[in-house]
Amino acid sequence: MTEIFTPRLLLRRWREEDLTAMAEINADPVVMEWIGDGSVLDLEQTAEAIERWEEEWDEEGFGLFAVELLGSGELAGFTGLSVPEYLPEVLPAVEIGWRFGRPFWGQGYAAEAAHASLEFALQDRGLDRVVSICRAGHDASENVMRKLGMSLEREAVDPRYGFPLLVHAIDLTEYRG
Ligand SMILES: CC(C)(COP(=O)(O)OP(=O)(O)OC[C@H]1O[C@@H](n2cnc3c(N)ncnc32)[C@H](O)[C@@H]1OP(=O)(O)O)[C@@H](O)C(=O)NCCC(=O)NCCS
């Protein structure tokens, strides 16, 4: 069982009881504004997504962590690793991503969880490079990328929706863990 503790958070594999809280996050149009075409996800789609994320853990040895607040035990969202199949031009690559419920924004939780995930990728899993991709103009995400020490590597266009994308990256050699 892969678990990482940070000062305020527990990053862990998904549990059945996470479904309702994650579905609430995925149903918020403000949370989903910059993701895909901005569509929200319902309970069933969230259940399918969690199943896929767990499969990725089993197949790849990495995946998206459920992020729990230490103390209250609330599910704040996710951070972690995935293969960005939706953008073939960057493959092979492993992407770090994040999605938190609105009550958990603006408190440094995303950056705290992302640092732990990046360390997991580069030091525990032995990856030598991690990318992070967001839509151009998504300042909150770019801010997290910069705090991780990532730099802009290329601009791209989302083949699914035509939105301009920014691809940030960090190499193991640049990482100061
Ligand atoms: C992207 C997202 C995860 C960023 O969350 P966030 O809360 O803004 O990010 P951070 O964890 O970096 O916290 C931001 C601010 O919290 C503040 N903060 C408050 N308490 C803090 C603390 N104890 N430690 C650190 N920062 C703290 C800081 O001011 C920080 O801003 P700064 O870096 O400019 O100083 C969030 O907006 C989100 O989930 N969005 C919807 C999903 C999404 O778009 N995902 C990405 C798709 S590409």
UniProtKB/TrEMBL annotation:
Domain N-acetyltransferase: 9-173
PROSITE patterns documented for this protein: GNAT
Superkingdom of the source species: Bacteria
Protein name: GNAT family N-acetyltransferase
